[in-house]
From TrEMBL, chains A, B:
InterPro entries (UniProt xref): Aminoacid_DH-like_N_sf (IPR046346), NAD(P)-bd_dom_sf (IPR036291), THF_DH/CycHdrlase (IPR000672), THF_DH/CycHdrlase_cat_dom (IPR020630), THF_DH/CycHdrlase_NAD-bd_dom (IPR020631)
EC number: 1.5.1.5, 3.5.4.9
Biological classification of the source: Bacteria, Pseudomonadati, Thermodesulfobacteriota, Desulfobacteria, Desulfobacterales
Molecular function, one GO term: methenyltetrahydrofolate cyclohydrolase activity
Purpose: Catalyzes the oxidation of 5,10-methylenetetrahydrofolate to 5,10-methenyltetrahydrofolate and then the hydrolysis of 5,10-methenyltetrahydrofolate to 10-formyltetrahydrofolate.
Reactions accelerated catalytically: (6R)-5,10-methylene-5,6,7,8-tetrahydrofolate + NADP(+) = (6R)-5,10-methenyltetrahydrofolate + NADPH; (6R)-5,10-methenyltetrahydrofolate + H2O = (6R)-10-formyltetrahydrofolate + H(+)
Iron-sulfur recorded as keyword: no
GO biological process: L-histidine biosynthetic process; methionine biosynthetic process; purine nucleotide biosynthetic process; tetrahydrofolate interconversion
Residue span, Tetrahydrofolate dehydrogenase/cyclohydrolase NAD(P)-binding domain: 139-283
A GO cellular-component term linked to this record: cytosol
Protein name (record): Bifunctional protein FolD
Amino acid sequence: MAESLKGKPVADAIKAELTEKVASLKEKGITPKLGIIRVGARPDDLFYEGGAKKTCQIVGMDSEVFEYPEDIDQASFEKAVTEIGAKKDVNGILMFSPLPKSLDERKIRSLIPVEKDVDCLTVGGAAKVFTDDATGFPPCTPTACMEMLHFYDIPIKGKKCVVLGRSLVVGKPMAMLLLREHGTVTICHSRTENLPDVCKDADILVAAVGRAKMVTADFVKPGQIVIDVGINADPDNPGKYCGDVNFADAEPIVEKISPVPAGVGSVTTSVLCKHTIMACEMQNS
Amino acid sequence: MAESLKGKPVADAIKAELTEKVASLKEKGITPKLGIIRVGARPDDLFYEGGAKKTCQIVGMDSEVFEYPEDIDQASFEKAVTEIGAKKDVNGILMFSPLPKSLDERKIRSLIPVEKDVDCLTVGGAAKVFTDDATGFPPCTPTACMEMLHFYDIPIKGKKCVVLGRSLVVGKPMAMLLLREHGTVTICHSRTENLPDVCKDADILVAAVGRAKMVTADFVKPGQIVIDVGINADPDNPGKYCGDVNFADAEPIVEKISPVPAGVGSVTTSVLCKHTIMACEMQNS
């Protein structure tokens, strides 16, 4: 039976560290603040927003939600995002995406100041990830995976790390973060030949492909560490979520595996707050 | 005996295509121009510059060298680069690096307009590579490797592509370009455990580590395609160059291999001109 890499202890450790940081910032008269920009009211966004606000509250920082109707026009929304970006008291900005199709998302994203881009929504933020610029903030999800690996003392240096999925939100930045810590990194995807064998060869397998339970027994091997980034509707349990890994299949085989829910997803809002506090420190240094 | 993936036929094909493009641009009264910025006069830079100027001449485009003394001060050089960047007739800019230590290279690079950044010297250029933005210009060397693979009809999609080296000039952008064409991409490096085995597992091995002849017989296998990006002083033949691959070792084993010299290095100035012409077309569209 594999060790379960639960997210809560990781998030708790981050929050404890952040609580101290916020307290010492407050002694200097500074309270870090996360700005959340939301257009419309998708249930998933509201759920994440609730978690983010709660984490802010736990660590002692402020948050503010800037909510707009789905039919907001481009010019008005550009003006709003620019104004939020200019707010001195907002240190980090999270904007839910995708935006409604009527909006030019690329343009909107570019209005977020890169120094407040705590979830890597801008081109400048992506560049910092690719070029290993420590002043940048990689997206929260792959950063949460790194926090998991660190917390559970899983060695990365020299190890075969296989990232399944190549999105700009998870797969590619994940690869860069693993490479930064001297992992040997393979990025594989739907077009990969012999995909199960490629995944099976990993010491650390990060599944970030967004397909429910696609990582089956033939993708894994004993001794392996599996980090499951997927959050998918569970086809077998209506109303429930499941990961990209078929947990029942993989768990008896591998050494350690993160569950879904209660795995990586439990860590992301703590990373969001961590980034915002780092941004606040840089903005006030 | 392996097929030799020579660079000259690849460069010739690109130059033929570019000659036609330049001719049609000239009919519209437009002549693409490459601006080359050089500080000091390192022999390697002068050699590359000579090749670039010659390629420009062959395809019918203009080039201009902007040369500065090694002791130029930051302010003067910033002013010069800004002025070159603003020149309407200069469509692409190559700047030799590293700059003398007395200069802030990061700052200088940022003065090159991203739309003229034909060798990916800017952060904006790097972002375009990472985010698969087709308006960007990846560095010339990894692009030359892709031109080699295309010219010799080597399939990439689904194949195991192993990039040895993780520099921002070759390794990382090479990985992104292979990924863009649906390769399964592994980035390995000096810290990789069992490095020979990781390389041996490749269908396509790109050696870009900058260490003379380090890829020996135990890194390769029959059926493999090897692209050697290295240009190193040959420890066994003073005054000669060699690649990262021990050619004598690997050539009898693998299926196809690019030689050094006369391999990838013969293609880079053609890519530089291709990028400049693409930049010119975008600037005039």
